[in-house]
Design goal:
alpha+beta; Beta Polymerase, domain 2; 8 helices
């Protein structure tokens, strides 16, 4: 889908069609929309291919007076086993327009373009990009908190579980943190490179805005690292806990088997086809049952005294 926006002092306004100086936002594009990017706006095929590659890392380059940026942004996966991941966001900056390209529709871009109508003053495209970077780190923080909440819920389930289902859920949360950590570090290098870029020095921008973008990104990295370390330790601890719970279950089953074996053994002795002193007694059945109950009860008391059950 392609949408067009006009930058004004107080933010962005939606446009029906492209006009010179517009911001073009492209999400989840089909082949027709990709052709528009190639032919109308001259976006290189290699850059489009890189943006469509979900594993592409953050980078920036300048070619023919245009700035090309690939920035990793967080997305929520509704129909995927991994609830959160990251994808590349392509940004093309030229004197006549600015283009954002993402292979998926995402909450971040929807929020940014609706919210950017309420931005404070925007003097140029690059300040808009910095606002986008800051908003991206906000969503990293938001998703990291949601990952932490889900992890706490899984932790409660793991405390009383002997199955691997919860461990698989925890593993998916850890994968999310790995994606976030890798992408945030890549973004951090990109922001540092942008600050020293000759292309950027030719544009006026707020240094405070740049500093805020860098600080927010570093804070997101620290938060992701902390959650990742906690989760790694939790994975090891709960793997041992599940193993211990399983051992307890096996111990209980073994004790039950031993207790049930006692009356079976006694009945087998008296059921042998050999003479014994109780074969003529009319109380033999009751006696055998009482002996079985007595020995079984003694065994249960012994196990309880040893705290094995």
């Amino acid at each position: 889908m392609i949408t067009y926006w006009q930058m004004i002092n107080s933010g962005l306004l939606p446009l029906v069609s492209y006009d010179k100086g517009s911001i073009i936002n492209v999400t989840d594009p089909d082949e027709k929309e990709l052709n528009i990017l190639r032919t109308t706006f001259g976006v290189p095929e290699d850059f489009i291919h890189d943006v469509m590659d979900i594993d592409e890392r953050s980078r920036t380059e300048v070619d023919e007076g245009k700035l090309y940026i690939i920035y990793r942004i967080p997305v929520r996966n509704i129909n995927n086993g991994i609830p959160f991941s990251t994808v590349p966001l392509g940004i093309v900056l030229s004197p006549e327009y600015m283009i954002t390209i993402c292979s998926k529709s995402c909450e971040l871009l929807d929020d940014f373009f609706s919210r950017s109508r309420k931005h404070s003053e925007l003097s140029n495209y690059f300040e808009l990009i910095l606002h986008l970077f800051i908003r991206t780190t906000f969503f990293y923080h938001k998703y990291l908190k949601q990952i932490n909440i889900e992890t706490n819920q899984i932790e409660q389930d793991l405390a009383k579980s002997t199955k691997n289902k919860e461990l698989h859920k925890l593993l998916k949360m850890e994968k999310c943190l790995v994606y976030f950590t890798t992408s945030l570090r890549s973004n951090d290098l990109l922001i540092a490179k942008l600050r020293s870029s000759k292309f950027i020095t030719l544009n006026e921008y707020s240094s405070d805005l740049f500093d805020e973008a860098m600080i927010e990104n570093k804070q997101a990295i620290e938060m992701a690292n902390i959650y990742s370390d906690i989760q790694s330790g939790m994975m090891d601890a709960f793997a041992s806990l599940i193993s211990n719970n399983l051992n307890n279950v096996l111990k209980q089953l073994t004790i039950v088997t031993i207790v049930l074996m006692i009356p079976t053994l006694i009945a087998s002795f008296f059921g042998m086809n050999v003479p014994n002193f109780m074969e003529e007694s009319k109380f033999s059945f009751i006696g055998i049952v009482l002996i079985s109950v007595l020995i079984t009860a003694s065994g249960v008391l012994l196990f309880r005294r040893k705290k094995w059950m």
